[in-house]
Amino acid sequence: MNAIRSIWRLTPVRGVTIPNYAIRSLSANTTALPHAVEPVVPPVELDKLYKRVELEMRGIDPAVLLSYSWFCVAAASHLGIEVTKSWALRKAEKERHTLLKCVHIYKKHKVQYEIRTYFRFIHMQRLTGSTCDTYLEYIERNLPEGCALKVTKIECQKLPEHLVPPKKESEE
């Protein structure tokens, strides 16, 4: 008991006094638990299941995009993920902007700028939530410059309880 008071006295607290009844022995308050009480088990959270995960990659350089798609397919095969489709669009999406060379006059002197965006797609099937999160974090960290990644997940869920499958005519 005196050891606890000496610890309190060593702490640099100004203007606060601790009354004697506030410091109690810890062994006096302990009580034995009844034997009938069972330990509380936290509910187990089930992992999500994804029917399909679709990756859409966009980039301005087709060679970099092709290399990155090979990397994504190789990473999926190392994790045991089933890749069903991997393809690219035949033509790039072109966005053209026409500007005047001079702001004030000379309407017939124009310059045209073009931005080409290339696409690649990868479809994967039957993934668990933890595997999907690990895979996506890995490929997102290795995303090269000039590329964008869009992920679409299709999750499997239980049928709601209020929906019941129809009964067969022979059962009625």
Automatic annotation (TrEMBL):
A Pfam family that the UniProt record links to this protein: Ribosomal_S10
Every Small ribosomal subunit protein uS10 domain range: 54-152
Keyword Nucleotide-binding belongs to the record: no
Localization per record: Mitochondrion
Keywords for the protein's UniProt record, in alphabetical order: Mitochondrion, Ribonucleoprotein, Ribosomal protein
GO cellular component: mitochondrial small ribosomal subunit
Family: Belongs to the universal ribosomal protein uS10 family.
Name of this protein: Small ribosomal subunit protein uS10m
Native species: Bombyx mandarina (Wild silk moth)
